[in-house]
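chain below, 117 aa
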Amino acid sequence: MAPSPGRQVIERYGAAGFRISGAIFAGSVLVLPDRTIAWDDAAPTIEALAPALALGGFELILLGLGRRGAPVTPALRAALRSRGIGVEAMDTGAACRTYNLLVAEDRLVAAALLPLV
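prediction:
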């Protein structure tokens, strides 16, 4: 199943960054349903996710936290839930694969991804 036209697809990830829908990004990124932006903050906090939240258009955000996943803090989970957004944290590889699967199903998903360092 291929994603709908205009949807972002994560093609490659590594220590230096990402290739998403043909564009190369060095460092961390926020992948939204219709665009990808560089993520300078790269911390899983509500303040750091503000650029993605301002653009909206998603109901689930995947946190790709490098080589190892980490739990989502209760404060972040509650802040996202109050905005009607679910959150799942995992290692970056799993987040990329899960994002691509969900976007192929036309789910409204975003990803906040750290490179594999």
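Residues 10-114 form a domain with the Hypothetical Protein Mth938; Chain: A, fold (CATH 3.40.1230.10). The longest strand covers residues 60-65.
thats it, cya
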